[in-house]
Automatic annotation (TrEMBL):
CDD domains: S26_SPase_I (cd06530). Coiled coil: none annotated. Pfam families: Peptidase_S26. PROSITE patterns: SPASE_I_3. InterPro entries: LexA/Signal_pep-like_sf, Pept_S26A_signal_pept_1, Pept_S26A_signal_pept_1_CS, Peptidase_S26. This is Signal peptidase I. It is a multi-pass membrane protein. It comes from the Bacteria. Residues 42-132 form the Peptidase S26 domain. The keyword Hydrolase applies. Its EC number is 3.4.21.89.
Length: 166
């Protein structure tokens, strides 16, 4: 990544595919390292264990995280790229076959995930990260065909279930 004098960042995606299909190898990404946002849905660069990674913020300070068989629920709602970021609710721990963990994010902790969770090493493995390791917001990706993608997504709360006749 190269940072310009005005604080914008340009770089090419070289990596693993943890943000696929939104980001693919060779994409040019544009970000900023000022006026940072740390809200759910924002894509950030995190420096973890000496490695630079691009991840999406899912959990923010105070959130309750539930992990069930690798799926992450924030305050009992999971958001995934494969569902176009429309959330779905956690029902109960009995649905978990292999794994069930709960944690509460502290005042300076964030839970970050790769969009392609099957190929991502993220907070599910290394735990919540402090704000101090989050350096940049990634704003746009430009593909070889000049397609531009906005990288921040809006998490959409699931519709409330209504009973019969409502």
């Amino acid at each position: 990544m190269v940072t310009g004098a005005i604080g914008y960042v340009l770089g090419n995606i070289l990596g693993s595919g943890s943000a696929w299909p939104l980001l693919t190898k060779g994409d040019l990404v544009i970000g900023r390292n000022f006026a940072l946002s740390f809200q759910p849905g924002v894509m950030v660069r995190a420096e973890i264990d000496g490695k630079s990674m691009i991840k999406r913020i899912h959990g923010v300070p105070g959130d309750q995280i539930t992990i069930c068989d690798g799926l992450v629920y924030v305050n009992d709602i999971a958001y995934q790229q494969v569902n176009n970021w429309v959330g779905f609710r956690f029902e109960n721990a009995a649905q978990c076959q292999r794994e069930y963990r709960k944690l509460q994010l502290a005042a300076d902790e964030y839970f970050v995930l790769g969009d392609n969770t099957n190929q991502s090493r993220d907070s599910r493995q290394y735990g919540p990260v402090p704000k101090s390791v989050l350096y940049e917001n990634f704003l746009y990706a430009i593909r070889d065909d000049m397609t531009v993608r906005y990288l921040t997504v809006e998490f959409v709360a699931p519709a409330e279930h209504k009973g019969a006749g409502q």
